[in-house]
Specification:
The protein is 22% helix and 42% strand. It has four helices and 14 strands. It has helices spanning 2-10, 35-46, 78-88, 152-166; strands at residues 27-31, 50-53, 59-63, 66-67, 73-74, 91-99, 102-111, 114-126, 129-135, 141-146, 173-183, 191-200, 204-208, 214-216. A five-stranded antiparallel sheet has the order 5-9-8-7-6, with helices on one face. A four-stranded antiparallel sheet has the order 11-12-13-14, covered by helices on one side. A three-stranded antiparallel sheet has the order 2-3-4, covered by helices on one side. The two termini are 26 Å apart.
Length: 217
């Protein structure tokens, strides 16, 4: 850690060692589609909902307040509704942009306190009526085996190397978070990749815990 701090100082980047986590875990997580959970999700939005198969693995839900594509549900307390809704389905409340019952509220899927950075949900309201839901809904996550990967120090060293090669210039690391990115492919439709998110005064970057590859947020 001392060497890491010295390295950052020599590169002109402010870094607070308090950003380093006390404990680190690298888990592989698997996801499997859950029809019952999807129905509960739809019912929480639409009232008691019934599903129909639209083909291609797509289910359409229809309930008291509309369907999943057409939605208008009166809500007494939009922000309170969102907080409870997010809590029920494993999302962490992030931001609220509501004014007089109109606007949007966003939450991000999390697992045991670790965010899935590219799996967020946004609920949209108009005059205290829920009018739309956009984003990613994920099933429950099953913990897999622990895997070796880059720790926080290694990730930060990789980031400095990346800055040198790519020409990225920053003067401060403001946050360091461990979490996941949702990845999809034809072979594995739902897969979570462990990453470190490094937030700087310029932008945020993801360091792949397995490969060390760095991508910009």
């Amino acid at each position: 850690v001392e060497q890491l701090c010295t390295l950052f100082e020599k590169n002109g980047v402010a870094f607070d060692r308090a950003l380093l986590p006390d404990e680190e875990t690298h888990l592989s997580l698997s996801l499997e589609r859950d029809a019952a959970r999807e129905e509960a999700f739809a019912s929480a939005l639409l009232g008691t909902a019934e599903s129909s198969d639209s083909g291609g693995g797509v289910s359409r839900f229809t309930g008291e307040y509309g369907s999943c594509s057409i939605l208008s549900r009166p809500v007494d307390d939009p922000e309170g509704f969102c907080k409870q809704f997010f809590k029920t389905f494993g999302y962490t409340f992030l931001t609220s942009q509501l004014t007089d019952g109109s606007g949007s509220v966003t939450g991000m899927r999390s697992e045991k306190g670790q965010l899935i950075f590219n799996a967020s949900l946004t609920l949209t309201f108009s005059d205290s009526s829920l009018t739309g839901v956009s984003g990613i809904f994920l099933p429950a996550l099953d913990e897999g085996r622990r895997t070796d990967g880059l720790d926080a120090v290694d990730a930060l060293v990789h980031f400095l190397d990346y800055c040198s090669v790519s020409g990225v210039v920053c003067t401060e690391v403001r946050a360091l978070d461990e979490g996941y990115l949702l990845q999809t492919s034809s072979a594995s439709p739902l897969r979570l990749q462990g990453v470190w998110r490094i937030s700087t005064d310029v932008s945020s970057y993801y360091v792949n815990c397995k490969t060390g590859e760095i991508t910009r947020e």
